[in-house]
Amino acid sequence: MVDPELLNLLRCPETRQPLSLADAALVQKLNEQITAGQLLNRAGKPVTRKCDSALLRKDGQFVYPVCESIPILLIDEGIPLNSSTAYVQPAAG
Q: The whole model's pTM is what?
């Protein structure tokens, strides 16, 4: 789990948008796709390590994996969210 104080400081490495913890359903869906070998990161490479959690970019377009309690905040490691991840962007606010 990411410390709440640290979470307030973390930003997307590309756009500097705030990040928030992804909900458990999204993390489960990501891990299912990782297990099935169906999830690609932004660089187009298969994601092979399951996520403990994930950090969701404010615009809902990408998540960054958290593995072994370490956020992986590299642009190429971002995971694009689309219809295959069944993600629904939260209401603005």
A: 0.85
